Amino acid sequence: MWRLRSRWRYLVCLQIVGSFCLAAYVLGTTKHTREEEATPITVNRGLGSTEHHIFKAVGGAEPPTQNNKLQTSTVDTVFQQLPDVERGNDPSPVTVKLSSRKQLGLINARQFAVESGSLDVPLGGKWRPPTTDQSVSSEKIAVLVPYRDREEHLKTFLSYIHPFLQRQGRHYGIYVVEQHGDEPLFCKGLLFNIAFNAALDDDDYDCFIFHDVDLIPEDDRNLYTCRESPRHLSVAINKFNYTLPYEQLFGGVTALKTSHYKQLNGYSNLFCGWGGEDDDMFKRLYRHKLRVSRPDKDVARYKMLRHSQTPLNPARYSLLKTSMKRASEDGLSSLETMGYQITSTSRKRYFSHILVNIADRNVRRVLRRLPRHVKRV
User: Fold this and answer.
1) Are residues 31 and 59 in the same domain?
2) Which range of residues forms the domain containing residue 346?
3) Total domains present in the chain
4) DSSP class per residue in 228-261
5) Would you say the C-alpha torsion 233, 140, 115, 44 has a positive or negative sign?
6) Tens-digit pLDDT profile for the chain (377 aa)?
7) Same domain, yes or no, for 17 and 130?
């Protein structure tokens, strides 16, 4: 009995001591948390924005916290030292002029009518750095954006891409190629080829950026420029949890030299609807032994604007089987046989507009126009 009472007293004492320790730990943690809350924290975000609600307006998770060395001074070196990537190095630092802190964040599409008045963009969406600084590249860049029925996306894209390119000191022009007509499916490859020729007729561009309207770059260090090899820029997209879905992907946002695009004969004209044209382009790169380079995934991050799924291309798998055979005869070289018509070309406030009428086109009917040896699978 004596031993039982002693053991019971020992357990009670142990419980009391444990309660005191737990109470002390809780009080210490609360005090530490309050001190942290009272200390201001300054974070430089990938978008250069200090307002989370602006970024969240386009949906998805919070923006990444990355120090991209953006300063509030009017002239600043944005890219101090860029990381070595797996398949090549980024170029030397670039000195750019920052217009205002207000422009450094993503603008909500609903605010575009108010905010866009502050964009420093000449008519037609063509801009060049107002400096003779030798550190600024003389490369002329055309950004091609295929478009149909996504007005809110286009407004958001334009409100962000102009300040983004200007902070990088790019000499650029924005070309929006819009599809209308009886064709129910969206023909992105055909639109890219049409816009490529139209842009070259307008100016002597050295580099072309092929850009989906629903992708917004998150980091200024993701340089919009061409390299010695074709470059895939949209490596990490929030929709895919910021990972590359597969190694052969070459879509979303890509950069090709003018000479490379001509060598590849452009995109295939036959893909209409979602899926296939990007994989077909990768096969063309493989055919010409052009290696794809990519920035580091921590830099090449994109936010995808919310949208409904585009109707699928019912013939994408059949067309991909003949990619290699069609490459030399389906693309820029066959545009005249594609049955489209450029309705108008005009210079809008923030972009050059190419309106294209595409008649209802049955893929089988288009395939019949190709040489017989190409149609064999």
Assistant:
1) no
2) 52-375
3) 2
4) SS-EE---EEGGGTTB-S-TT---SEEEEEHHHH
5) positive
6) 545 556 666 666 666 766 666 565 545 544 444 443 333 323 233 333 322 222 233 333 333 333 332 222 222 222 222 222 233 333 333 333 333 322 323 334 344 444 455 678 899 999 999 875 555 568 999 999 999 988 999 999 999 999 999 999 999 999 999 999 989 899 999 999 999 999 999 999 999 999 999 999 999 999 999 999 999 999 999 999 999 998 999 999 999 999 999 999 999 999 988 888 999 999 999 999 999 999 999 999 999 998 777 777 777 788 888 888 889 999 999 999 888 999 999 999 899 999 999 988 766 666 665 556 555 43
7) no
Q: What angle do CA 35, 38, 43 make, to 5 degrees?
A: 110
Same domain, 258 and 297: yes
Looking at the structure, do residues 110 and 235 belong to the same domain, yes or no?
yes
Do 9 and 105 lie in one domain? The reply is no
> b/e string for 295-306 if b means 16 or more Cβ within 10 A?
bbebbbbbbbbe
Single pTM value for the model: 0.69
- For tokens 């737990």, name the residue: 22
Assigned domain for 341 exists: yes
Do 30 and 72 belong together in one domain? no
Q: What are phi and psi of 143, to 5 degrees?
A: -100, 115
Contact 261, 119 (CB under 8 A): no
